[in-house]
Amino acid sequence: MQLKCSLCGKNYEFVYIKDEPLPAHFPFCSKRCKLIDLGKWLNEEYRISTPLPDSEELTKLEQDTFSEIQEETLLKLIKSEKDTE
Ligand SMILES: [Zn+2]
To answer: What does CATH list as the number for 1-50?
Structure first.
């Protein structure tokens, strides 16, 4: 049967034989396409698991701002409580 390689879009002939293992490059037209696809996935994973220094600094900044706001809110609460007394 004719199959289309999901990487390069090339049509290729795939012969399914019952009880036979699938070809090593399945579902791509060749081993090369399968390796390229695998490499793309690995690159993506590498990018995601590597923390960016910029975002790390941003998180720290956000945390600092958050604790500042919390302190302000606490001070206001304490002040307002005193006012009602
Ligand atoms: Zn291909």
So the answer is: 3.30.50
